[in-house]
Amino acid sequence: MVVGVDAGATTTRCVVATLDGAVVGRGVAGGANRNSSGGEVSGTLVAALTAALGAVDRAGVRLGVLGAAGSAGAGREAFRAAALRAWREAGLSGEVVTVTDLEVAYAAGTAEPDGVLLLSGTGALAARFAGGELRRRCDGYGWLLGDEGSAVWIGVRALRAVLAALDGRGEPTALVGTACTHFGITPAADHEAAAPAADHDAVADREAVAPAADNEAVAQALLAAGFAVAPAELGRLAPAVSAAAEQGDPVAARICAAAADRLLHTYDSVGPPPGAVVVLAGSVLLRPGPVSRAVRAGLLTRTGAEPRAARDGACGAAALAVGRLAGAPVPPAVHARLTGVPAEPPRASGSAQEPSAHEPRRE
């Protein structure tokens, strides 16, 4: 058997699988990104491994591939040390291979050696693969310095717009009520059913209902709530921002449009070859919404084919483990059984299609 782990910033998933692609165990734990999740990485990995192994005979596990967000560059050695410690604590003795979340996400969507991964979940980036090797990546620099178009990027910009609406620097927006609901804060009277104001007179009328002091109290409460959570948690606002955009809020719509533009620019920046297989990963791109629609439409124009979905990064890691153990690329049938992704990429049908409403496995 092999083990595959996808350690994301908000969720860590683990699968145990046989060499012919049958999944015999699954486990889930919290986030394991040392930059944005908080907590102790090896402890999270142990929890996911232990849950997946269950009553499985640990002596039958020959190899594990563990991938993690934030494990490239300076984070590589720290994650490997945490992975080895967790592997031992889980009672395993087989070989351990550590990679980034890029490899496991791409492998979750295709067995093709050449193509591009575009990811937008807690973080965001694009990565180009050739011959099964990562050749170039763009972005993925974390919530503070990059991850443009990610769920956290969307959440942070929504909160900025909310604070600007509250102190008068920005236009009124339904996102004020959205943010208050998200954090359990009672909004000022003029934001209980927030809607865009059409003119300055309307703004003045609304300010007369709720004095600036009330807005200041709400702003300070939101500020405290936002800083009280791990940065990765701010990405949980993204679905509500998408919903507000769908309901016609112009501020939310602009945030979503900007996120899609940033993601497509990141895709273009890795230099994808013509007709490249594209794998989408992350909740922002796998859930229905304005960002995923715009990105899919842009990719269809660029490639002439529908992108594939990386439904389960842990199964992608297991597929890599099967291939590594065999010393050859994972057979397409085994990959399809593990990941649920068809062996051949779907071709364009003439229009971008809405992604299925499955629960994304990559966070």
UniProtKB/TrEMBL annotation:
Residues 336-363 are annotated as: Disordered. Residues 3-321 form the ATPase BadF/BadG/BcrA/BcrD type domain. Pfam families: BcrAD_BadFG. InterPro entries: ATPase_BadF, ATPase_NBD, Euk-type_GlcNAc_Kinase. SUPFAM superfamilies: Actin-like ATPase domain. This is ATPase. It comes from Actinoplanes aureus.
